[in-house]
Amino acid sequence: MAKIESYAPGSFCWAELATTDPAAAKHFYGEMFGWTAVDVPMPEGVYTLFQSDGQDAAAVYSAPPGVPVHWGVYFSVVSADESAAKIAPAGGKVMAGPFDVHDVGRMAVAQDPQGAVFSLWQAKRSIGATYGGPLNQVTWPELATTDPEGAAAFYTGLFGWKIKPETGLAEAQYGEWSNGGPSMGGLLPMKGDQWKGVPPHWSMYVTVADCDERASRAGQLGGKLYMPPTDIPNVGRFSVIADPQGATFNIIHITGTHQPAAA
């Protein structure tokens, strides 16, 4: 198991679950991925770290009123204030912050121009996830959006990412983000009736040894399969799942030569 020591600016560095039932979430994800739960009491409530092999993998907290159940994604920045200042001029919206998270870091919560929510993270005492996998690791942030070209312009301007294909995103089935190296995330155009009523959003993947077995286990634990295990050519096999409280995530068994970038 490789420990992650640092993140380059623009890297996917953290994922946290906002849920209506933290106790149930700790049980579900513990059974799914072998994560252990470490409660961290804070003045605003308990924040629970999911750990694997003693390293931080993700987190869960009780969703405040009005916040839907969801997995949120964080991207590392040098300065939360400077990055947040770029968001509104680019057509996005800063929803909260920038603000200090005690001595752990400084962050902001934002929406892109299409409405997908994400967070900025300026590391202080915590860089974000330190668990480097290979199994049961949170990886591959994926943006589902109604305007792939507009999203590409926004995020490449904000984080300095590159996107492929560089042109023709409106017609492409899938795009890939890179942050100065191999592909590190995805862009999924929301085409077709299956997206009716679904807002643009970020999601993430968790690596597993056996996609079919883990998808079956999710059902046994009270989860719901939105997409059954499905092959991705040259990549692996994945499934889209909702936990018992309704938060969606993806699992993937990576088998192909097309590997996501290391953190």
Describe this structure in words.
- β6 and β7 (105-111) form a beta hairpin.
- The chain folds into 2 domains: 12-123, 2,3-Dihydroxybiphenyl 1,2-Dioxygenase, domain 1, CATH 3.10.180; 138-254, 2,3-Dihydroxybiphenyl 1,2-Dioxygenase, domain 1 (Roll).
- The two termini are 13 Å apart.
- Helices cover 15% and strands 43% of the residues.
- It is globular.
- It is of the alpha+beta class.
- It contains 4 helices and 16 strands.
- It has helices at residues 22-33, 80-85, 148-159, 211-220, and strands at 12-19, 36-42, 45-52, 55-62, 70-76, 93-101, 105-111, 117-123, 138-145, 162-164, 175-178, 183-189, 201-207, 224-232, 236-242, 248-254.
Give descriptors for this structure.
2 domains, 2,3-Dihydroxybiphenyl 1,2-Dioxygenase, domain 1, 8-stranded mixed sheet, 263 residues
Task: Give a short synopsis of this structure.
By secondary structure, the chain is of the alpha+beta class. The chain is built from 4 helices and 16 strands.
As an assembly, this protein is single chain
Number of strands: 16
Query: Helix proportion of residues, in percent?
Result: 10-25%
Relative strand content: 35-45%
Radius of gyration: 17 Å
The helix tally amounts to 4
- Contiguous runs where pLDDT drops below 50 for at least 5 residues: none
> What's the shape?
globular
Structural class: alpha+beta
Distance between the termini: 13 Å
Largest beta sheet, briefly?
Answer: 8 strands, mixed
Topology at a glance:
Blueprint: E1 12-19, H1 22-33, E2 36-42, E3 45-52, E4 55-62, E5 70-76, H2 80-85, E6 93-101, E7 105-111, E8 117-123, E9 138-145, H3 148-159, E10 162-164, E11 175-178, E12 183-189, E13 201-207, H4 211-220, E14 224-232, E15 236-242, E16 248-254
Parallel strand pairs: 1-4, 5-8, 9-12, 13-16
Antiparallel strand pairs: 1-5, 2-3, 3-4, 6-7, 7-8, 9-13, 10-11, 11-12, 14-15, 15-16
